[in-house]
Amino acid sequence: MNFPKFQQLVEQRSGFRSMENPMATGEYFSDSCGDMYTFYLKVGAGEVIEDVSYFTTGCGFGTATCSIVVDLVHGKTVDEAWALTDEQIEAVLDGYPEKKKDYPGRSIAALRAAIEDFRAKRASGVISDAMLAGTDASGSAAFSAPEARVAAASEATGASGARQTIKLH
Fold it and tell me: How far does CA 23 lie from the centroid of its chain?
């Protein structure tokens, strides 16, 4: 394991923040240790992830792993992010200790829950093509920034927002 890289990820916590008005969220709760992982997504034209962040109650390994996920999926399409593997995450740190090998899977589960939330909102029409493109139904530039598009999506879903929580342990 690359301990200096691990330490850097824990200290910098890239992407460790809640997100105002995310288009989609996904959570994972570990019954075995009580860790919670939440990923937030903002997606743009071509279903490219424009912004991704996370919040976790987990330890340093949870924080480092979620930071790696943020770095690996930012700027990727939703489909490319879905295809992220444990091995790709582990490669960033040159492997994980045996007792921590489930951390990549936990982070991927939370990310995939967010992607499933996004896909469900797309399928139901809550998130439209126009919202992803930053235009209204007439093709006019109705949304000047990703934050405005996401605000519109949040208004369409209501104040509570839809969340998926999955338990794998």
Answer: 10
